[in-house]
Design goal:
Keywords: DNA-binding, Transcription, Transcription regulation. This protein is an all-alpha fold. It is built from nine helices and no strands.
Length: about 220
């Protein structure tokens, strides 16, 4: 993981986006949009291929032949979301970049449709290996995209040489997802600023550079 009048969160594909391609691409777009709607409304356990076909206004045979299972639909949806994500920020400072990342996560998780969609996909990943693998790939793509913020900061001398870029980016989103999924906390910009500041401070201290000794 929206009302037609509300813009989608940055970095997340808006439902109904028209992309270039032939009939196959249009069918995939319609089916994935319908899958996302169904997941957001009813969760993974209620995801039904016939219902998705009806929502997408395509033949059931097409959906069953191309995807076959709800898990395959969820996996393709995650792959599509990763492909459509916007590129990382480049504010000129590591803390500014990490704050942009944190705010993106908060806007996504607090969006009525996308928040429910991500909750459904995370829940599905706990019991379905195919969805779990797809979710892992989704986050790998996003973390790799934002890792450039850290490597740029190292090049500028803001962070120690050898800083693990992926670890820093993951440290930004981890507390936000924990609050969203485990605590049920209403995420705000305060959470975004705190997460970004904590990750940037730890990175500057060499927590992920190998420069600090283990306790």
């Amino acid at each position: 993981m929206t009302d037609a009048a509300a813009p989608p969160p940055p970095g997340i594909p808006p439902p109904g986006t028209v992309r270039p391609g032939g009939r196959t691409a249009r069918v995939r777009e319609a089916v994935l949009r319908a899958s996302g709607d169904a997941l957001a409304e009813r969760g993974f356990e209620a995801l039904d291929l016939a219902d998705v076909a009806r929502r997408a206004e395509v033949g059931k045979t097409t959906v069953y032949r191309r995807w076959g299972t709800p898990a395959a639909l969820a996996a393709d949806l995650l792959a599509d979301m990763a492909e459509q994500s916007l590129p990382r920020a480049d504010t000129g400072t590591v803390e500014g970049d990490l704050l942009a990342n944190a705010r993106l996560v908060v806007r996504t998780l607090t969006d009525p449709r996308q928040g429910r969609l991500f909750r459904a996909l995370v829940a599905a990943s706990l019991c379905d290996p195919e969805t779990a693998a797809a979710l892992h790939r989704f986050y790998e793509v996003r973390v790799a995209e934002w890792a450039g913020c850290v490597t740029d900061a190292v090049a500028r001398g803001e962070l120690p040489t050898g800083t693990d870029a992926h670890a820093v980016v993951a440290a930004v989103s981890a507390p936000l997802y924990y609050a969203f999924l485990n605590l049920g906390a209403p995420l705000t910009d305060h959470h975004a600023r705190r997460a970004a500041h904590a990750a940037a401070t730890a990175a500057r201290a060499g927590v992920w550079s190998g420069d600090t000794e283990d306790d």
